[in-house]
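[Discussion] Sanity-checking designs against the backbone

I'm trying to build intuition for which residues belong where. Below is a structure token string of 498 positions. I'd appreciate it if someone posts a full sequence so I can compare it with mine line by line.
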């Protein structure tokens, strides 16, 4: 078989990701949104989240795929993990093709192998997030974009537009990669080619993305690229779970509405905070740029950067290096505009691994023993990283809120499913097939009033997240509860009597 090595690498990638999928017990918090939207979409209820709202904080492609697989598996959480694991494994193919095209077949195979075993990619391929699907689409878009520029083929530009449209429908910033391809088209300085190839590129993009533009217009009343509300701009304003954070999102603004509700009903241009206070924007931008650089070292250690830079140094074709570099510079310069989430930066890792593959290949030319030693070092690093991702103090499998899942399953199994559940987190509502209402940041009398106005049936309080509602801590010892779980953290549910 011609490509048997690549097939073996794919099997390794898939097995590692399936193993990690099997270790997860509780759906990720944001994964609830993807799963619920996918299930509601395929059941004909529209793009509704667990709160019963038309979802505006995510783009739909990953959820649509979850919905279709849900028809077979009848489990939205498992569907999300299967899709993540599959596309996380398939990522080896565009990386192989791009590495082969930019350098040679050997670098392509090394890069694909690194994708298969790289810890952060494996972890993000095991959770109900859109990340692995996004990386797959971006890298295939990068590959076909490069081939289109090389062969000057209008239909390849059309296909590239389609792939970046799907990237955009997976994460909204995916549409920005289109500008990179357009920039290289313009660099040809031939207006006939610029118009023809640019037209086919945008036609491919619009054919796929136009229905979503119409959907966004229906929600916001504006022609804009996404329906992400003002809520998105609030997340980076304070440390998660701090008092400032909780007040800013969950403080009551009326008897039946919290600040989060107001933010979700407002839609602002990304340019508004920039134009209103340019100096403050620049201050935050450079602050975020510093945080970003620190976070990059967490997902791609300095020693790997050194090997990678050696690979770049030994590369001769400026056009090819510039092309790859654009797929790093775009996210690197974009994300500080908003706020930094470490996992968002992982979209640069596939390109880093192509350069790392080149570096390892070049060291192998100097000395085969040195090359093998460095590859062995990267493998050991990856295996260590996989173990660390499983046992991470914040995100590891052992830190999952299993008591919330058990409470939800108990409610569902004891006649309390399909209710309206109020809590700081949505897991209990998700596992009991209920609707979620978020717990306000206020005293219990005001919370009760809010709950009654929102038709809440059950209230959840838990020890794990009680720090977000310290004024309710004593209620964890209440006697008049419906059900209580003590381990690993205490959690109670009680009926709200209005």
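Best answer:
Here's mine. Compare freely.
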């Amino acid at each position: 078989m011609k490509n048997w090595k690549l097939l073996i690498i794919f099997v390794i990638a898939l097995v590692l990701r399936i193993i990690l999928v099997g270790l997860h017990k509780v759906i990720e918090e944001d994964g609830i949104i993807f799963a619920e939207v996918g299930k509601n979409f395929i059941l004909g209820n529209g793009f509704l989240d667990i709160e019963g709202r038309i979802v505006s904080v995510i783009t739909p492609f990953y959820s649509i795929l979850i919905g279709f697989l849900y028809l077979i598996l009848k489990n939205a959480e498992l569907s999300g993990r299967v899709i993540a694991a599959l596309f996380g494994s398939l990522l080896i193919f565009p990386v192989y093709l791009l590495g082969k095209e930019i350098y040679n077949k050997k670098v392509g195979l090394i890069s694909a192998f690194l994708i298969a075993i790289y810890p952060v990619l494996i972890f993000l391929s095991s959770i109900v997030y859109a990340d692995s699907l996004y990386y797959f689409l971006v890298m295939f878009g990068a590959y076909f974009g490069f081939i289109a520029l090389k062969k000057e083929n209008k239909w390849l530009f059309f296909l590239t537009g389609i792939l970046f449209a799907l990237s955009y429908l997976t994460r909204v910033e995916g549409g920005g990669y289109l500008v990179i391809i357009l920039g290289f088209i313009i660099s040809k300085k031939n207006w006939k080619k610029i118009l023809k190839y640019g037209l086919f590129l945008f036609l491919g993009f619009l054919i796929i993305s136009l229905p979503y533009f119409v959907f966004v217009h229906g929600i916001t009343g504006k022609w804009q690229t996404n329906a992400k509300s003002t809520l998105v701009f609030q997340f980076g304003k304070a440390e998660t779970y701090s008092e400032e954070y909780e007040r800013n999102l969950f403080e009551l603004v009326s008897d039946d509405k919290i600040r989060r509700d107001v933010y979700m009903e407002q839609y602002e241009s990304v340019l508004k905070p920039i134009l209103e206070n340019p100096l403050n924007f620049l201050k935050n931008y450079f602050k975020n740029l510093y945080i970003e650089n620190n976070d990059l070292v967490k997902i791609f250690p300095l020693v790997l950067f050194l090997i990678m830079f050696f690979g770049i140094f030994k590369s001769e074709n400026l056009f090819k290096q510039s092309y790859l570099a654009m797929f790093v510079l775009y996210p690197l310069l974009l994300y500080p505009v908003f706020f930094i989430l470490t996992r968002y930066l992982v979209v640069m890792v596939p390109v880093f691994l192509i350069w790392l593959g080149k570096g390892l290949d070049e060291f192998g030319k100097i000395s085969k023993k040195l090359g093998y030693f460095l590859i062995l070092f990267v493998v050991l690093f990856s295996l260590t990283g996989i173990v660390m991702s499983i046992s991470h103090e914040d995100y590891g499998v052992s830190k999952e809120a299993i008591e919330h899942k058990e409470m939800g399953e108990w409610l569902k199994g004891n006649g309390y499913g399909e209710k309206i559940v109020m809590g700081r987190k949505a897991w209990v509502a998700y596992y009991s097939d209920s609707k979620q209402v978020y717990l306000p940041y206020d005293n219990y009398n005001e919370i009760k009033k809010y709950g009654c106005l929102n038709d809440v049936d059950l209230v959840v309080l838990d020890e794990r997240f009680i720090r977000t509602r310290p004024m309710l801590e004593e209620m964890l010892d209440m006697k008049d509860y419906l059900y209580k779980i003590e381990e690993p953290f205490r959690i109670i549910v009680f009926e709200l009597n209005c």
